Amino acid sequence: MANRGYDVVVDVDAEGEGDLGHTDLQEDLEFHSSNFETQPTRSKIPPDSSLPFTTNPTSSTSPSSSKRLLWTLSFYAQFFDVDTAEVLRRARSALFPRSNFLDILDGNPDLYGPIWIATTVVFILFLTATISQYLARRHEGHFEYDFRILSGAAGLVYGYTALVPVALWGVLKWFGSEGASVLECWALYGYANLIWVPVALISWSPIEVLNWVFVAVGFAVSGVFLVRNLWPVVSATDKKTSRVLLVVVVVLHAGLAVAIKELFFA
User: Fold this and answer.
1) Which of 69, 217, 239, 266 is the most buried (most CB within 10 A)?
2) Which phi and psi angles does 8 have, rounded to 5°?
3) In sequence order, what are the residues at sequence separation of 6 or more whose Cβ sits closer than 8 angstroms to the Cβ of residue 28?
4) Secondary structure class of 33 (helix, strand, coil)
């Protein structure tokens, strides 16, 4: 009874209208259950499920509202669900690996870091290649910027980072390996490009051998990073297939390193 409220109804006889202070409490006092609660708790207004920006798939009750449609921003927002601190932590893990990078991703691969890293590499390649050309032609008088370098850098870096992981994921899928999703492959290759930022900054030297050394270091660091993190994934296939896949990964990465050297720092 302590948690429930009651209405008190007092029935006053007609004969006793002149004496309002007289009531028969034992016979006419009735108790009825009250509908008054202590204090109703306020609940949040549920978001409009018809708006893709406010729908939360984890809390939605209808199966149709949990779908992220391809033409909505919420579909692409899931690929950028990281903050700056997390991107920096992943970047440090790519340069100084201590554990498997797929474990660091923890099931939440992002495209924010890979896109910005690839974009940074593209513009630094354009900048340092332009400086290298200027130093080689400074005695010719007038110097013109070659914006074909920029388009070439974009095609090389974006193409390699976007297409090779998809091809690798498709081959792994074909051979029955489920160790990495296509987003994890994109994130792995995207963060592996980070080493090319310092390499591009110091490879504009007129000393050819020194440039080759810098590019070789970049290839070694990023190549070891890829092989180390891809080995648990490709080892799910048979022994021969896993070796062939790793050789293909290394050869393609070596092709990227040679292309960077010859196209931008020749």
Assistant:
1) 217
2) -105, 120
3) 10, 11, 12, 13
4) strand
Q: Which of 83, 161, 89 is nearest to 121 (CA)?
A: 161
C-alpha to C-alpha distance for 256 and 152, rounded to whole angstroms = 12
Q: How far apart are CA 93 and CA 84, in angstroms?
A: 14
Would you say residue 257 has pLDDT above 60? yes
pLDDT, tens digit, 9 for 90 and up, residues 13-44: 555 444 544 545 455 555 555 554 444 443 33
- Side chain identity at residue 124, one-letter code: I
Report pLDDT for 92: 92
* pLDDT single digits (tens) 124-134: 999 988 888 88
SS3 per residue for 95-123: HCCCCCHHHHHCCCCCCHHHHHHHHHHHH
Helices 112-137 and 182-192 sit at what angle, rounded to 10 degrees? Answer: 30
Is the distance from CB of 7 to CB of 34 less than 8 angstroms?
yes
Please count the residues of the chain: 266
Q: What is the pTM of this model?
A: 0.70
Distance CA 127, CA 163 (A): 25
Question: Could you tell me where the DSSP H helices lie in 175-238?
Answer: 182-192, 196-202, 208-234
| Token pair for 164 | 């090779």
Please provide the DSSP assignment of 65-106 as one string: GG---TTSHHHHHGGG---HHHHHHHHHHHHS--S-HHHHHT
